[in-house]
Design goal:
Layout lengths: L1 E5 L7 E4 L9 E11 L1 H8 L2 H6 L4 E2 L3 E9 L11 E4 L2 E2 L5 H4 L10 E2 L11 E5 L3 E3 L6 H5 L1 H11 L9 E4 L3 H12 L5 E5 L2 H9 L4 E4 L5 H8 L5 E6 L4 H9 L1 E9 L11 H6 L3 E4 L7 H11 L8 E6 L3 H10 L4 E5 L3
Parallel strand pairs: 11-12, 11-14, 12-13, 14-15, 15-16, 17-18
Antiparallel strand pairs: 1-2, 1-4, 3-5, 3-9, 3-18, 5-6, 6-10, 7-8
Bound molecules: nicotinamide-adenine-dinucleotide and zinc ion.
Length: about 350
């Protein structure tokens, strides 16, 4: 089969023929239909510092996908041939304290599909049944292919109650935009999103987030004035990884405000702890998705009318992967989806 393989410890990826995988016990083989390209894939493609530490070569990369089950291993009872599925990108150990308690998203021994386990940028992928999410028949295939980052957005958005609250989302990347759309759909009052990239702010507006501001031009204090807010934001979703964005967020929260942090800073960052203490803020780190509560919530949100499809701005044949990474590196895109059915 064809697969995009990180063959060498250097920039780039190789499209090559590799053996088709087989289903082991409690595993299935999935024919991949569409895949999303994630920032993680871009790190691996560019071979930055993080990738050099995290990835072992050779490995097939990619973890955002939708596909159909084409082979079933021994002892698989819950899935059938032809089922439309996506996969949770974290393989958990099953025996640490958190796994044993059913809190699999808190496993300390997780392995990443497409990072240190064969990924989905291939015609076929094998996964354990414990990592499958079966889609409803009416799901849009492209939307199904980005359930993984949609799940990051949902997991971050629902860390704290947002109904009737004023929510600040810093970073209008695909995940920030989806997070903003989720809290808006769920009943937040004002939803403000910030970025420093006008194209991404425009994309946010296309998804219905009208309060989209370039922080180089408009301060969060001005935004609050414009919206008639007097006491600061109740909930913050940090989706940029940018230290300045996080510092501005802390300075603009209401007393007792709650922040969920998904954005990954490139290194240690300073924050003004006096602001955290005297504003009595709660800050919670967020990683991945909740297995499988986030997946349930995603399916439910879509069926309740949330439309995240406009966040997908580019569609390409998998053979054009170089172009996909070029678009991602330029940063003016939303989600880029590769088609594996060509
Ligand atoms: P992205 O890089 O596409 O988007 C980040 C956005 O932040 C960009 O549009 C950038 O222009 C913007 N930004 C930069 N400086 C800013 C500032 N000062 N104020 C406001 N915005 C600013 O990333 P994404 O794919 O949407 O993911 C969002 C973040 O979440 C990234 O940091 C990513 O690494 C992280 N992430 C974390 C997890 C996790 O499990 N914790 C999973 C996926 C992604
Ligand atoms: Zn575990």
């Amino acid at each position: 089969m064809k697969a995009l393989v990180k063959t060498h410890a250097e920039k780039g990826l190789t499209l090559q023929d590799v053996p088709e995988p087989k289903a082991g016990s409690r595993e299935v083989v999935i024919k991949v239909e569409k895949t999303g390209v994630c920032g993680t894939d871009l790190h691996i493609y560019n071979w930055d510092e993080w990738a050099q530490k995290a990835v072992k070569v050779p490995n097939i990369i990619g973890h955002e996908f939708v596909g159909r089950i084409v082979e079933i291993g021994n002892d698989v009872v819950d899935f059938s041939l032809g089922d439309l599925v996506s996969g949770e990108g974290h393989l958990v150990c099953g025996h640490c304290r958190n796994c044993m308690a059913g809190r699999r998203h808190l496993c300390r021994e997780t392995r990443g599909v497409g990072v240190n386990h064969p990924g989905c940028f291939a015609e076929y992928i094998t996964l354990p049944v414990t990592n499958l999410w079966e889609h409803h028949g009416d799901v849009d295939l492209e939307v199904a292919s980005i359930f993984d980052p949609f799940g990051n957005a949902v997991h971050t958005a629902f860390q704290f109650p947002c109904v009737c609250e004023d929510v600040l989302v810093t970073g209008a990347g695909p995940i920030g935009i989806m997070g903003a759309a989720v809290v808006k759909h769920a009943g937040a009052r004002h939803v403000v999103i910030t970025d420093v990239n006008p194209k991404r702010l425009e994309l946010a507006r296309r998804l219905g987030i009208e309060h989209a501001f370039d922080v180089r031009e408009t301060s969060l204090a001005d935004v609050q004035k414009e919206l008639g807010m007097e006491e600061g934001f109740d909930v913050g979703l940090e989706m940029s990884g940018n230290p300045q964005a996080f510092q501005d967020m802390i300075a603009n929260m209401s007393h007792g405000g709650k922040i969920s942090m998904l954005g990954i800073p490139s290194g240690p960052m300073n924050i003004d702890w006096n602001q955290v203490i005297f504003s009595m803020l709660t800050i919670k780190g967020v990683y991945g998705r909740e297995m499988y509560e986030s997946w349930y919530q995603m399916s439910s949100l879509l069926r309740a009318g949330l439309d995240i499809k406009p966040v997908i701005t580019h569609r390409m044949d998998y053979k054009d992967f170089e172009k996909a990474f070029e678009v991602m590196n330029a940063g003016d895109c939303g989600k880029v989806v590769l088609d594996w059915n060509t």
